[in-house]
Write a structure and sequence with these properties.
Structural class: alpha+beta
Shape: globular
Radius of gyration: 27 Å
Largest sheet: 6 strands, mixed
CATH architecture of the largest domain: 2-Layer Sandwich
CATH superfamily of the largest domain: Metalloenzyme, LuxS/M16 peptidase-like
CATH class of the largest domain: Alpha Beta
């Protein structure tokens, strides 16, 4: 019996169908949703003393009047306490013949200053209006303030009395995370003369100046004059190296929460956990996707812990220098006892979040996508702000490192468009260093 059946499609038609399918897939790829993120322009020049100036700009900012300037100084961990003392004095009544703080004096000019210190750099921030009637007097006052501050004895004594233990606590945590033989200057040994000398040392260590926002052409000469004046004593040099003895600490203080089991309301425990402070060392950031990974991880940590009824709130802070970055989070526990029958959610301890496999955002793809979509929505708003870019420049990136501001600005849109659960998990496994985990607990 002969077989008279014929193929449904001839070979030419089948080839055409396959080609059309390929083209359709290609078109879907091209039309896939893409984050609405601007690509900033970057202009570079140097001050007369050779300090690099990086100006990041967007066309939308030409219509605004906000200008952010950041002075970045190379320091070492041994100078951190002196940096904090020096900036505290600068931010106080350091203008000559003045009892007002610098920000009180700048407020009528629509300007303000801020400061930040971390492991390997210190930053002085200046927020100004680019309108000439405000900008010119602001630049004149700031140049005088930075070059010739007056550090008063009474102000120093007040700082010694009022200085809290927050910086000492943070330094203690960093020492726990990293074995550091380059010990920090002791708070008690700081004197006014040391602060005055250190101020001059800081000015000579100015390494980079960043500008964010619209800069009118007529304002550029005044900006250049101020930057040249502030940087005239700077000595361009490579970032100081930390001692080679600095290594990741492997000491691990395990959690005493007994896996956060529900408290038995029929028994009176000897003490009730009130607060806990956790910290984990991180590998240095090398890409925008590393930074995105930490944003999603942090959102997962805070939202998951805050949903647990025995926790009042959780706060997370990321400290991301180019060397010895770390993450720390504080948990405030509820003072009341929750009946066990109301506790139905899965319990995760603070320590659970240093292991990637434990994370809800790893185990649940939908949760990851929700957190990622939220991050993209936030980025689409934040990327329009000069203040946000100044944060990225001074808190996330660093010149002459694997992730510079230029790298971030050029690649962050592509990084967002190509991010996936797989890249998130890969980055987490590299970034989190569980063996360094520390936890400190306070009981009532």
């Amino acid at each position: 019996m002969s077989d008279n059946s014929k193929p449904l499609f001839s070979r030419p038609v089948l080839a055409l169908v396959m080609l059309l399918c390929t083209l359709a897939i290609w078109m879907l790829t091209l039309t896939a949703p893409s984050a609405d993120l601007p690509t900033p322009e970057i202009e570079n020049w140097q001050t007369q003393s050779g300090v690099p100036v990086v100006w990041l700009k967007q066309k939308e900012w030409d219509k605004g009047d906000k200008l952010e300037i950041r002075f970045v100084f190379h320091t070492t961990n041994a100078e951190k306490s002196l940096n904090q003392a020096t900036f505290a004095m600068l931010m106080s009544d350091s203008l000559p013949l003045s009892t007002a703080t610098i920000n009180q004096r700048l407020a009528p000019l629509a300007a303000s200053v801020s400061s930040d210190t971390k492991h390997d750099q210190a930053t002085l921030g200046l927020t100004v209006s680019n309108q000439s009637q405000y900008l010119m007097p602001t630049l004149t006052r700031v140049a005088t303030w930075l070059q010739q501050p007056e550090f008063k004895q009474r102000t120093f004594e007040r700082w010694q009395r009022q200085s809290d233990n927050s910086s000492i606590l943070q330094k203690s945590i960093e020492d726990q995370l990293f074995t550091n033989k380059n010990l920090d200057t002791k708070h008690a040994s700081i004197t006014l003369n040391k602060v005055i000398e250190h101020h001059q040392s800081l000015l000579s260590s100015l390494s980079t100046i960043y500008i964010f926002g619209g800069l009118p052409e007529q304002a550029k000469p005044a900006i250049d004059a101020m930057l040249n004046a502030v940087s005239q004593h700077s000595i361009t040099k490579e970032q100081p190296d930390e001692p080679t003895e600095n290594q990741l600490s492997t000491r691990h203080i395990s959690s005493n929460l007994a896996n956060n089991t529900t408290l038995d309301t029929n028994q009176t425990p000897p003490s009730i956990l009130w607060q806990s402070r956790s910290a984990v060392a991180l590998s240095p950031l090398t890409s925008v996707q590393d930074w995105m990974t930490l944003q999603i991880w942090g959102s997962d940590l805070v939202s998951t812990l805050n949903k647990q009824t025995h926790i009042d709130f959780t706060q997370l802070a990321l400290t991301l220098p180019s060397k010895q970055p770390w993450a720390g989070w504080n948990i405030q526990y509820a003072t009341h006892l929750v009946p066990q029958e109301t506790e139905q959610e899965e319990k995760l301890t603070a320590e659970s979040f240093v292991f990637a496999d434990n994370l809800p955002s790893i185990k649940d793809k939908k949760r990851f996508e929700t957190l990622f979509d939220t991050l993209v929505e936030q980025l689409e708003q934040q990327a329009l702000s000069p203040t946000w870019w100044s944060y990225i420049a001074t808190q996330v990136t660093q010149e002459n490192s694997p992730l510079s501001l230029e790298d971030f600005a050029k690649s962050y849109k592509e990084a967002v468009d190509t991010f996936s659960l797989e890249s998130y998990q890969t980055a987490l496994n590299r970034l989190l260093l569980p063996s360094s985990y520390q936890e400190f607990q306070v009981y009532q």
